[in-house]
Write a structure and sequence with these properties.
By secondary structure, the chain is an alpha/beta fold. The chain has twelve helices and 14 strands. The structure holds 3-isopropylmalic acid (IPM) and magnesium ion. Magnesium ion (MG) is lined by residues 251, 255.
Length: 370
């Protein structure tokens, strides 16, 4: 029996709890079949926490996240909480976790699975075999920079301010993660900013270049302006292997890249902190789709993004590569068999809901593990 692995599960709002339910079934299956035991605790975040506890995330939940080996996050937000003050928005939950756990490297893969090549809005020839990784800086930049706020000017007008700022250390630590990842992939990194108009972007480029020269000369490094990168991502996405970029540009570019794959519902992500001396690091895993309030409660959401986030958790937090692959293969096989949730329907496929999709993955796992 492998040692207990401490998991904090935070389903959140909207479709979060629905898709998380299917992942819990996979976790139970692993417990039963593969002798891996997880010590799981589940808690509230986002709107669910606002309703129950009056805040998007409590100190206790942050403490539990700090003590966990990994956090599996669903999604937060919804129209019910849209009118609350800024500090009371459900999104504060995920931003707080990123900041408090020091989760500075947000890994967002965009992979086109063969059975889904027709689900992309782009031509199959452009996206077939796509496998790119966006590494988004996630504890700095415009999201956290000071000064920030809304002030009233002497003439009665108001002004909203946010600050884009990056220090050498912040740039280096996320660039390092990207170079290390690239070495295990196609060994190419494209660093993205707007060094042509922003000083923070210029420093970004200088620091990435210097680190590359010092320690990662074996990795092919290119630089690109963020606007050009957006264009290149739809023109010829396969030119990229690893893209490393700032918090805001990464937010935009990863949504864009996700649609290359057909559906936001398919994509997982991992957000990692710095490893300590024993190699242990804080980490949070979440699908990149949001809470999708328009389809919440209907039982039609795609659980695969959450499922694949759990696979990433096994890979990056517990070094369980075989089990991660097993889950990924089970998901791909189910899609190849023609079963689809509404978001990734194609010609000649059969529409199923969230729980049938979950069940089908379980059945496939049984087969693969037999
Ligand atoms: C994401 C989301 C978040 C972000 C929101 C929910 C705060 O869009 O993870 O991409 O902007 O980082
Ligand atoms: Mg986003």
């Amino acid at each position: 029996m492998a040692a207990n692995k401490k998991l904090l599960v935070l389903p959140g709002d909207g479709i979060g709890p629905e898709v998380m339910r299917e992942v819990r079934r996979v976790i139970d299956w692993m417990d039963r079949r593969r002798s891996v035991s997880f010590d799981i605790s589940e808690d509230l975040v986002g709107g669910a926490s606002i309703d129950g506890r009056g805040t998007p995330i409590t100190k206790e939940v942050v403490a539990k996240a700090l003590a966990a080996d990994a956090v599996l996050f669903g999604s937060v937000g919804g129209p019910r909480w849209d009118k609350l003050g800024f500090e009371m928005r459900p999104e504060i939950a995920i931003l707080t976790l990123r900041r408090e756990l020091g989760l500075f490297a947000n890994l967002r893969p965009a992979t086109v699975l063969d059975p889904l090549v027709e689900a992309s809005t782009l031509k199959p020839d452009v996206v077939r075999g796509l496998d790119l990784m966006i590494v988004r800086e996630s504890t700095g930049g415009l999201y956290f920079g000071e000064p920030r706020g809304i002030e009233t000017l002497p003439d009665g007008q108001q002004r909203g301010t946010n600050t884009e700022a990056y220090s050498t250390h912040e740039i280096e630590q996320v660039a390092r993660v990207s170079f290390e990842l690239a070495r295990k992939r196609q060994n190419r990194v494209c660093s993205v900013e707007k060094a042509n108009v922003m000083e923070s972007g210029l420093l970004w480029r200088q620091v990435v270049t210097a680190l590359h020269e010092r320690e990662y000369g074996d990795v092919a490094l290119t630089h690109m302006y963020a606007d050009n990168c957006a264009m290149q991502l739809v023109r010829n996405p396969r030119q990229f292997d690893v893209i490393v970029t700032t918090n805001l540009f990464g937010d935009l570019l990863s949504d864009l890249a996700s649609m290359l794959t057909g559906s936001l519902g398919m994509l997982p992500s991992a957000t990692l902190g710095a490893p300590d001396s024993s190699g242990r690091r804080h980490a949070l895993y979440e699908p990149i789709h949001g809470s999708a309030p328009d389809i919440a409660g209907k039982g039609i959401a795609n659980p695969l993004g959450q499922m694949l986030s759990f696979a990433m958790l096994l890979r990056y937090s517990f070094d369980m590569e075989d089990d991660a692959r097993l889950i990924e293969r089970a998901c791909t096989n189910v899609l190849a068999s023609g079963l689809r949730t509404a978001d990734v329907m194609g010609q000649g496929t059969a529409k199923v809901g969230t729980s049938v999709m979950g069940e089908s993955v379980l059945r496939e796992l049984e087969k693969l593990a037999a």
